[in-house]
Amino acid sequence: MLKRILSAIVGVSFALGLLILSIWVPFAINIAIALICILAIYEMFTAMGIFRMYGITIPSFLFAAAMPLLGEGFAWQIAWYLYTLLIFSIMIFMNKVLTFKDIAVIYSMNLLITLSLSKIITLRDMGLEQNAMFGIFFIVMVLALPWMADTGAYFFGSFLGKHKLCPDISPKKTVEGVVGGVIVCVLSTLLVGVIFDLWIFPEGTNVHYLSLILLGLVGSVLSVLGDLCFSLVKRGCHIKDFGNAIPGHGGILDRFDSVVFVAPFLYLFAQYLPLYSV
User: Fold this and answer.
1) pTM for the predicted model, two decimal places
2) Per-residue pLDDT averaged across 188-207, rounded?
3) Which of 18-25's residues contact partners 24+ apart within 8 Å by CB, and which partners?
């Protein structure tokens, strides 16, 4: 548990430093997300045992970085088309070592991780249209929501957990842990809203706390869903964690698996139920 707490402190400190830097250098977030996407795909390929198939892995790494660095415009559409053409053409020449199922997993996981995590940048840009602090708010929210849900579930499950949630998928997850995760997530979402409302947002900004409560409730459930889905992936690859980059937490993908489900949801949610008004 000590390793987990220390890693969390270091991680949060790094994230805060990056957010402060992004006020003056917004593209720092793009670079960070691109690196996270590459590392996540690397962990996925390592779990599948295909990392040394460079004809697939190198184009996949380049594609994983494309959207965070290029945006969602025409340049990324070209990158997507070329990657699609290449990845399925490779299947023709490597059909003895790679099946269609392998190619489908490689392609779909790369798209899922890249598109989902790139929504963090889309959220940042959406906030930047009004004020730099609104962009920072969305980034903090999209990270705090799943991570605090996971933290709440971990501690509630450790001390109060009695009823297994999905023992065949994730033996340590409990119903009590999920409930605790929802509670901590909602409270954390409200706390972030209060902090930005009182000390960070420009004067005249109104935070919509009812929207934050609903966001915390649904987002925490999606966080658990994402975690369980990637637990199934790990079980299929016969591994416990995707890596050991973060002591006490596992790999990069172990820490961002729930963000993969939450980031697109927050983007869609904010389109129809704004979290603040100016």
Assistant:
1) 0.94
2) 95
3) 19/136, 19/139, 19/140, 22/124, 22/135, 22/136, 22/139, 23/132, 23/136
